[in-house]
Design a protein that fits this description.
4 helices
């Protein structure tokens, strides 16, 4: 994995997490105004699919989904897992490149 690939991966991760943050924020506003809501399984899938950091940040900043299971456990877990994966990709790019093909 080249440095350009690593920066591309970081950029994609940042954009994706920004989008996930936006979806969670939209759901928070909809909850306050009684509008159309995002399904909980969609929110969970977004967090699992690489958006854990954005979801967790929104949860902390906007106090959204702080008590409803499984969000209090799932979001910190996914954020930590995704950050560990980024560190592994950054520190051991040759091992990762070899492992994935």
């Amino acid at each position: 994995m080249t440095i350009d690939s690593l920066f591309t991966l970081l950029a994609v991760f940042a954009v994706w997490n920004g989008l996930v943050f936006g979806v969670y924020a939209f759901d928070k506003i909809a909850a306050q105004q009684g509008g159309w809501r995002v399904r909980e399984d969609t929110l969970i899938l977004l967090a699992i699919a690489g958006g854990g950091a954005g979801a967790l940040l929104c949860q902390r900043l906007l106090r959204h989904k702080t008590r409803k299971p499984p969000f209090p456990v799932l979001l910190p877990l996914m954020a930590a897992l995704h950050l560990v994966l980024l560190v592994v990709f950054g520190l051991f790019p040759q091992v990762v490149s070899h492992a994935i093909g």
